[in-house]
Amino acid sequence: MTIPASPPAGQPDGTGSERQVLEAFLDFHRQALASKADGISESEARHRRVPSKTTLAGLIKHMIGVERGWFQEVLAGRRPADIGPNVGGGDESWDLAENETASSLIKEYEQTCEQSRRTAARFALDDAVPEPDLSRYGGFTST
User: Fold this and answer.
1) By three-state DSSP, how is residue 70 classified?
2) Crossing angle of the two packed helices 102-121 and 18-35, in degrees rounded to 10
3) Which residues 6+ apart lie within 8 Å of 108 measured at CB?
4) DSSP H or E stretch at residue 56
5) CB-neighbour burial class of residue 38 (10 A; exposed 0-12, middle 13-18, buried 19+)
6) Rounded to the nearest 10 degrees, what angle do helices 56-67 and 102-121 cross at?
7) pTM recorded for the entire structure
8) Can you list the residues of the chain whose pLDDT is less than 50?
9) How far is CA 37 from CA 6, 42, 45, 47, 79, in A?
10) Is 66 helix (H, G, I), strand (E, B) or coil?
11) Which of 8, 29, 101, 125 has the maximum number of C-beta atoms within 10 A of its C-beta?
């Protein structure tokens, strides 16, 4: 098997320090999500294709909450009330207000991701951050 000298077009570079690779992959997936809303109508962004609350606009809003939960609440140790709305990406994070558009959510998501980057930059990869209740993040339980 031959390993390419550079990543395929559109893929993040897997070379560099552990931190550079991790950040490149996070940003790649953040951008992939935001790019899915390019060129679609508001109706399409709100359309449910499965029985759950999942819509493209809802997924973007949900990921805003996930970013805020992990980077601002867990990593930075801030209280949800000090962060703002939609912290943690719970079930309610899929609900869209009438005034929320895919465009406004993408802008908010990009701002939230930038804040996540600034927060993460203050920590080393091996810093320990206590989180006593992982069950609220996808069903994990702490022991």
Assistant:
1) helix
2) 170
3) 64
4) helix 56-67
5) exposed
6) 20
7) 0.84
8) 1-5, 142-143
9) 28, 9, 7, 12, 31
10) helix
11) 101
